[in-house]
C-alpha cells in the first residue's frame, strides 16, 4: 500500500514454556503508550493451559489503530518451540527484522523463507548472568532500543506491573532491560516519532471490557451467564462492576438457565444481559423466541468465534449472522446489532440496551473474538446519553392491556408491583390482554404489532457509519470494518473515490436508509469473514443493491488485512 | 516399613523385577512427552534419559534371568504401594520443573527401589532369591549414586522457579 | 462380547500426546482407563468413550478406542443413544464436574433414572479448568474466583447422593493419585450392569495447586463394605467426610435396554391402510 498506509510499527513476540511473552507484550504496549503512542495488541496461543507456545502481536502508531497491519516489521523470538503453529498469522518479508537467540537453534523453515534480516542476541545467556532476571526483560530492552523507546519508559512500565508486588524483582528487571538495550543490534528500522507530550484522555481497553462497560452505562442491572470462550471476560468484569452499581451477576448452570434467568429479571423490571458465543447462542434460541413473543427486553452478546460447532474457540469469524437473524422458529423479528471496532463495543452495547428497553425485545449483539480479546489504546470516547427507557403504563380505567395495539407497536409494560397492571406474560399466542388465543385475528394482530414496533422505530444515525462519496462503495459490518476503513483511507489518498458503509444495525433491515446511502453508487464491494458469504446473501435478500455487486468473503481464522482490501478496491475502481 | 512380597520361584522374582523396570521406563517416557508438549525440552531430555536407563536395566535383568523367565509373563502386579516401587508419580511433575527437581524425583524413585529390594532380601526364605534381591538392590544403589553425580551439576533452584507471569489460557 | 486375555494397557493408548498440564490428575485417570480395559480384556474397537467439553473431556482422543468428543454437557444423552442402538458395545462416558454436574445436571438425573448399562466417570477437580477457573457445582462456597469474587456462598451438592436418589445402580469414588484403587473401581463399574457412576477426585494443578497434597491426605478406603440399600448408602454419603473411596453402592436394578420384538419387513404394515 506504500506510503498511503497508516504509519505504524508492527511487532510480534513469540516464546513458550512460561517465558512470559504475553506479559512482555503488554509491558511493551504500556511503555509505548506512556510515550504518547497509540496501539493494539492481540495474542495467539497453543492448546496447553500453561507453558504453551504464545505470540503477542502489537501494532504501534502515532494515531489510534484498531486492527492489524498487513505485515510485521519485527519478530522477536525467545525460542522457536512449535512456532510453526503461528506461521499463517505472521506475515514477514525481506524488509522485516527477526531477532533471535542463537541458543534457540536454527530458524524454522517458514521464517527462513521470508528472507528477513536476522539479528542474533544471546538473550537467555544475558538473563542468566543477572540474578533473578527474566529473559523477557532482556527482550524488552532489545526492542525498546530498536524501536526508539527510552529505556526509562520500559522500566517504568515494568515497575507499574510488578514493582509493587516484588521490589527486588524490579532491580533485576531493570538490569535486564538495560543489558538488552546495550546488546541490541544496530538496525535500519524506521522508527515512529514520539510526540512531545502524550495526548491527554486516553484509555487502554479490550472489546470485552468495552462491551461490559457500555452495558453498564446503558443501565444493565442483572446479568446471568455461563463461562464460554471468548466471552467469559465480559461476565468476570461485570461480576465485580455490577454490585458496585446496584446490580448483580449470577453464574448459571448452563446457557438454557442463563437466558431464562435474564428473561425473569427483565420481566421484573431490571435491564438484563447475558454474554455467550456461538454454541451458547444455539442453546438459547428457543428462549430468545419466548422473549420475542412475550415482548421482554433483553441483550444477548454473542462474541463470535470460528465455527461451526465447537470450532476454534480462540479465533474469530463473522459466521453467526445467520443464526442471529434467522435462528428463531416461527416469524420472530428482533434486533441484531454489531460493533464496528473495539472502541465501538462500548457505544454499541449501550445502544443495544437502549434499543432492547425501548422496543421491549431481544437484541443480539454480534461482537467477535478479534474485538473482544484485542486491547487497544484509544482516545477516551465521548459520553453518549441513551437512556434505557421502558414504556410504563399510566393508570387506565378500562383495565390494563399489556399487548395493546398502538400506533408504534410499543405497548406500556407493567412491572410487578404496579397495582392494576397484573398480567401473565406468555409465549403462547395471545390477545391484547395477554390471554392465550387460537384466533386468527389475534395472531395476525400481534404479529403485526411486533413487526410494526421495529418498522416504525427511528434507529437514528447509529444504524451505520457512512463516509465519503463515489460511484464505488464498500459495504461491510462488524470487525471487518476497521481493516476496510484503513484500506479506504489509503485508496482515497491514491485518488480513488470510494464510499464506506459499515452497518451497525444488522436487523431489522433498513432498505430505505441504505438506498439513500447508495445514491450515486453503481458498484458495491462487500467485505466479510464467513465461508458462505452470510452478509452478502442477507443483503441480497432484504435490500435493493446496485447493478454491480462484488462479494468478497472468506472464513476465519486469519484476520482480514487492509492491504488485501485495498487491492480489491483498486481492482473494482479500475474495472 | 515396606512389606515385601514373597516369591515362590526365582522366575517369579525376575518377572516382577522386569515389570518394575518396564513400568518405570514407561512412566518416564510419559513424563518426557508431557514436558515436550509443554515446551520444557531440558526436562524432557532428562526424563527420556531416565527411560533409557530403565530400559537398559530391564535388558540386563532379562539377560541375567535367561531361560528361567519362560513360564512367566510380567503383565501386572498388585503393588503394595500405590505405584510400582520405582515409578515416578504423575503428580510430582510441573511444567516449569527444574533439572534439579527432575533429578531429585528420579533419585527418590531409585532409592525406593533400593529399599524395596533390600526388604525382599531381608524377608526371603529362599537364599537364591535373597541373593538376587541383594544384587538388584546394589544395582539400584549404583543408580542413586549416578543420579547424585548428575545432580552435582546443578546449583540450588531459583526461589521463583515456578513463576510464570503469563496467566493460564483456554483453548475451548 | 469378545474378551481378549492378551490385551496390554499400551494397546488402549493413541499416539496423541495429552495436552493436560504436568501434575494434572487426569494423566493418572487415562492410565487407569488403559489398565482397566486391559484387565477387562475388551478389544479396543468394541469400546466407545463419549465425552463433553472440558479438560477431562479430552480423554477419548488419547485412547485407541472409538470416541466422541461432543458438546458441553450432553455426553450422557449421546452415550445413551449409542448404547441403546448398540448394546454389544462397552460405552464409557467421561466428564468433569462442570460439564457433568452444571450444564449436564439434567441429563445426569435422567441417565441415572434410565439405568442404561453405561459407566460414567466424572473427573472432579471442583473447578472449571478449561475456561480458566470458575466455580463448579462441587466447589466450596468460600472459594474465590473472578466471576464470584467473594465465593459463591452456595453449598456444593453431593453428586453420589443425587445418583442414588435418581436410580443409579452402582456408585463409587476414587482418587486419581491411587492408581490401583481407581483401576479396581473402573473395572467393577464396567462389570456391574446398569448405570455405574464413578466420581474420581482428580486434582487441578493449575487452578487448585493445593488439592493434590490435601486430597492425598484426606482420602481413605470406606470403613464399611458396600451396601445394596440406596438409603443407607445415601445417608453414609451425606454424613461422611466426603473422602471415602471404593465401591459405595451396588444395586440390583435391571438395566434399561429396549429391544425390538420382531423383525418383519415394513411392507407388512400396509394392510392397515388398504381398503
Topology:
The complex is a heterotrimer of chains A (575), B (172) and C (275).
Chain A: E1 9-15, H1 21-34, E2 38-45, E3 54-61, E4 74-77, E5 97-100, H2 109-113, E6 117-120, H3 123-128, H4 135-147, H5 151-163, H6 167-183, E7 202-206, H7 207-218, E8 222-225, H8 232-244, E9 248-251, H9 255-267, E10 272-276, H10 278-294, E11 298-304, H11 321-326, E12 335-337, H12 344-359, E13 362-368, H13 369-372, E14 375-379, H14 440-455, E15 464-467, E16 472-477, H15 481-493, E17 498-503, E18 505-507, H16 511-517, E19 523-528, H17 534-542, E20 548-553, H18 562-574
Helix pairs in contact in A: 1-4, 1-5, 4-6, 5-6, 7-8, 7-12, 9-10, 15-18
Chain B: H1 10-37, H2 41-65, H3 99-123, H4 127-151
Chain C: H1 26-40, E1 47-51, E2 66-69, H2 75-85, E3 90-96, H3 97-103, H4 105-114, E4 119-124, H5 159-166, E5 170-175, H6 179-191, E6 196-201, H7 211-218, E7 220-221, H8 230-239, E8 244-250
Parallel strand pairs in C: 1-2, 1-3, 3-4, 4-6, 5-6, 7-8
Antiparallel strand pairs in C: 5-8
Q: How does this model look, in words?
A:
The complex is a heterotrimer of chains A (about 575), B (about 170) and C (about 280). Chain A has about 575 residues and is α/β, with parallel strands linked by helices. Chain A folds into four domains: about 180 residues, Pyruvate-ferredoxin oxidoreductase, PFOR, domain III (Pyruvate-ferredoxin Oxidoreductase, domain 3), CATH 3.40.920; about 180 residues, Rossmann fold (3-Layer(aba) Sandwich); about 70 residues, no CATH class; about 110 residues, Rossmann fold (3-Layer(aba) Sandwich), CATH 3.40.50. In chain A, strands 6-5-4-1-3-2-14-7 form an eight-stranded mixed beta sheet. With about 170 residues, chain B is an all-alpha fold. Chain B has a single domain, classed as Ferritin, core subunit, four-helix bundle (Ferritin), CATH 1.20.1260.10. In chain B, about 60% of the residues lie in helices and about 0% in strands. About 5% of the residues of chain B have low confidence. Chain C is an alpha/beta fold. Chain C has an eight-stranded mixed beta sheet with strand order 2-1-3-4-6-5-8-7, with helices on both faces. The chains are: A alpha/beta (about 575), B mainly alpha (about 170), C alpha/beta (about 280). Chains in contact: A-B, A-C, B-C. Chains A and B meet through helix 1 of A and loops of B.
Amino acid at each position: 500500500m506504500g506510503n498511503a498506509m497508516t504509519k505504524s510499527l508492527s511487532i510480534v513476540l513469540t516464546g513458550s514454556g512460561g517465558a512470559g511473552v504475553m506479559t512482555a507484550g503488554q509491558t511493551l504496549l504500556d511503555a509505548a503508550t506512556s510515550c504518547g503512542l497509540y496501539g493494539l495488541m492481540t495474542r495467539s496461543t497453543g492448546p496447553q493451559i500453561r507453558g504453551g507456545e504464545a505470540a503477542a502481536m502489537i501494532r504501534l502508531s502515532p494515531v489510534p489503530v484498531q486492527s492489524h497491519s498487513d505485515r510485521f516489521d519485527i519478530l522477536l523470538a525467545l525460542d522457536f518451540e512449535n512456532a510453526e503453529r503461528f506461521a499463517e498469522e505472521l506475515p514477514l518479508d525481506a524488509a522485516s527484522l527477526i531477532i533471535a537467540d542463537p541458543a534457540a537453534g536454527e530458524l524454522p523453515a517458514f521464517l527462513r523463507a521470508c528472507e528477513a534480516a536476522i539479528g542474533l542476541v544471546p538473550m537467555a545467556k544475558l538473563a542468566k548472568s543477572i540474578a533473578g532476571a527474566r529473559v523477557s526483560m532482556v527482550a524488552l530492552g532489545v526492542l525498546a532500543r530498536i524501536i526508539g523507546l527510552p529505556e526509562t519508559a520500559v522500566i517504568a512500565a515494568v515497575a507499574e506491573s510488578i514493582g509493587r508486588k516484588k521490589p527486588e524483582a524490579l532491580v533485576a528487571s531493570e538490569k535486564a532491560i538495560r543489558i538488552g538495550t546495550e546488546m541490541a543490534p544496530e538496525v535500519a528500522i524506521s522508527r515512529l516519532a514520539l510526540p512531545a507530550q502524550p495526548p491527554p484522555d486516553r484509555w487502554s481497553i479490550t472489546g470485552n471490557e468495552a462491551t461490559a462497560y457500555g452495558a453498564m452505562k446503558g443501565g444493565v442491572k442483572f446479568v446471568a451467564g455461563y463461562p464460554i470462550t471468548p466471552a467469559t471476560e465480559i461476565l468476570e468484569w461485570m461480576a465485580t462492576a455490577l454490585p458496585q452499581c446496584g446490580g448483580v451477576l449470577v453464574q448459571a448452570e448452563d446457557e438454557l438457565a442463563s437466558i431464562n434467568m435474564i428473561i425473569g429479571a427483565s420481566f421484573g423490571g431490571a435491564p438484563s444481559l447475558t454474554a455467550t458465543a456461538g454454541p451458547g447462542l444455539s442453546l438459547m434460541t428457543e428462549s430468545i423466541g419466548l422473549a420475542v413473543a412475550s415482548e421482554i427486553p433483553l441483550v444477548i452478546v454473542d462474541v463470535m468465534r470460528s465455527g461451526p460447532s465447537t470450532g476454534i474457540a480462540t479465533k474469530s469469524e463473522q459466521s453467526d449472522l445467520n443464526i442471529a437473524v434467522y435462528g428463531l422458529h416461527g416469524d420472530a423479528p428482533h434486533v441484531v446489532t454489531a460493533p464496528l471496532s473495539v472502541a465501538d463495543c462500548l457505544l454499541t452495547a449501550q445502544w443495544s440496551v437502549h434499543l432492547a428497553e425501548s422496543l421491549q425485545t431481544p437484541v443480539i449483539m454480534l461482537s467477535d473474538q478479534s474485538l473482544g480479546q484485542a486491547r487497544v489504546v484509544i482516545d477516551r470516547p465521548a459520553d453518549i446519553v441513551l437512556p434505557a427507557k421502558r414504556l410504563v403504563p399510566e393508570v387506565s380505567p378500562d383495565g390494563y392491556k399489556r399487548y395493546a395495539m398502538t400506533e408504534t407497536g410499543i405497548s406500556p409494560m407493567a412491572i410487578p408491583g404496579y397495582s392494576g397492571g397484573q398480567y401473565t406474560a406468555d409465549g403462547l399466542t395471545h390477545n391484547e390482554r395477554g390471554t392465550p388465543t387460537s384466533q386468527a385475528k389475534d395472531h395476525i394482530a400481534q404479529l403485526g404489532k411486533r413487526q410494526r414496533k421495529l418498522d416504525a422505530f427511528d434507529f437514528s444515525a447509529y444504524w451505520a457509519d457512512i463516509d465519503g462519496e463515489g460511484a464505488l462503495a464498500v459495504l461491510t459490518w462488524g470487525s471487518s470494518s476497521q481493516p476496510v476503513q484503513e484500506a479506504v483511507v489509503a485508496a482515497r489518498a491514491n485518488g480513488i473515490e470510494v464510499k464506506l458503509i459499515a452497518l451497525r444495525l444488522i436487523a431489522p433491515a433498513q432498505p430505505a436508509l441504505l438506498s439513500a446511502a447508495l445514491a450515486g453508487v453503481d458498484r458495491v464491494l462487500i467485505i466479510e469473514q464467513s465461508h458462505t458469504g452470510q452478509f452478502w446473501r442477507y443483503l441480497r435478500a432484504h435490500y435493493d443493491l446496485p447493478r454491480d455487486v462484488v462479494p468478497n468473503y472468506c472464513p476465519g481464522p486469519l484476520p482480514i488485512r487492509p492491504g488485501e482490501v485495498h487491492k480489491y478496491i483498486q481492482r473494482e475502481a479500475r474495472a | 516399613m515396606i512389606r515385601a512380597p514373597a516369591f515362590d520361584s526365582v522366575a517369579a522374582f525376575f518377572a516382577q523385577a522386569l515389570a518394575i523396570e518396564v513400568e518405570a521406563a514407561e512412566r518416564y517416557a510419559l513424563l518426557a512427552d508431557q514436558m515436550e508438549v509443554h515446551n520444557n525440552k531440558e526436562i524432557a531430555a532428562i526424563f527420556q534419559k531416565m527411560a533409557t536407563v530403565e530400559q537398559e536395566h530391564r535388558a540386563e535383568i532379562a539377560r541375567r534371568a535367561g531361560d528361567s523367565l519362560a513360564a512367566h509373563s510380567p503383565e501386572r502386579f498388585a503393588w503394595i504401594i500405590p505405584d510400582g516401587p520405582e515409578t515416578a508419580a504423575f503428580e510430582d511433575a510441573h511444567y516449569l520443573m527444574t533439572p534439579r527437581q527432575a533429578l531429585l524425583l528420579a533419585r527418590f524413585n531409585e532409592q525406593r527401589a533400593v529399599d524395596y529390594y533390600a526388604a525382599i532380601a531381608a524377608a526371603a526364605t529362599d537364599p537364591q532369591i535373597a541373593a538376587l534381591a541383594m544384587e538388584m538392590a546394589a544395582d539400584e544403589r549404583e543408580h542413586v549414586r549416578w543420579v547424585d553425580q548428575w545432580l552435582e551439576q546443578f546449583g540450588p533452584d531459583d526461589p521463583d522457579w515456578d513463576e510464570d507471569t503469563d496467566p493460564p489460557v483456554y483453548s475451548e | 462380547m469378545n474378551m481378549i486375555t492378551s490385551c496390554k494397557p499400551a494397546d488402549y493408548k493413541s499416539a496423541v500426546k495429552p495436552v493436560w498440564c504436568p501434575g494434572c490428575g487426569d494423566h493418572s485417570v487415562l492410565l487407569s482407563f488403559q489398565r482397566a480395559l486391559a484387565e477387562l480384556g475388551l478389544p479396543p474397537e468394541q469400546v466407545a468413550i463419549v465425552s463433553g467439553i472440558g479438560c477431562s473431556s479430552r480423554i477419548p482422543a488419547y485412547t485407541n478406542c472409538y470416541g466422541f468428543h461432543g458438546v458441553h454437557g450432553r455426553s450422557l444423552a449421546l452415550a445413551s443413544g449409542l448404547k441403546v442402538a448398540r448394546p454389544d458395545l462397552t460405552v464409557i462416558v467421561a466428564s468433569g464436574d462442570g460439564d457433568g454436574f452444571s450444564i449436564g445436571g439434567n441429563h445426569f438425573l435422567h441417565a441415572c433414572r434410565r439405568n442404561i448399562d453405561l459407566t460414567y466417570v466424572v473427573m472432579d477437580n471442583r473447578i472449571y479448568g478449561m475456561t480458566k477457573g470458575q466455580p463448579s457445582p462441587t466447589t466450596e462456597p468460600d472459594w474465590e474466583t473472578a466471576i464470584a469474587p467473594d465465593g459463591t456462598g452456595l453449598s456444593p451438592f453431593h453428586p453420589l447422593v443425587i445418583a442414588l436418589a435418581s436410580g443409579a445402580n452402582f456408585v463409587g469414588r476414587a482418587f486419581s493419585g491411587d492408581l490401583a484403587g481407581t483401576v479396581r473401581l473402573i473395572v467393577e463399574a464396567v462389570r456391574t450392569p446398569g448405570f455405574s457412576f464413578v466420581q474420581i477426585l482428580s486434582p487441578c494443578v493449575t487452578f487448585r495447586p493445593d488439592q493434590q497434597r490435601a486430597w492425598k491426605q484426606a482420602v481413605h478406603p470406606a470403613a464399611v463394605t458396600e451396601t445394596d440399600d440406596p438409603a443407607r448408602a445415601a445417608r453414609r454419603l451425606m454424613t461422611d467426610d466426603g473422602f471415602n473411596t471404593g465401591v459405595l453402592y451396588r444395586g440390583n436394578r435391571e438395566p434399561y435396554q429396549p429391544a425390538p420384538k420382531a423383525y418383519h419387513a415394513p411392507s407388512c404394515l400396509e394392510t392397515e391402510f388398504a381398503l
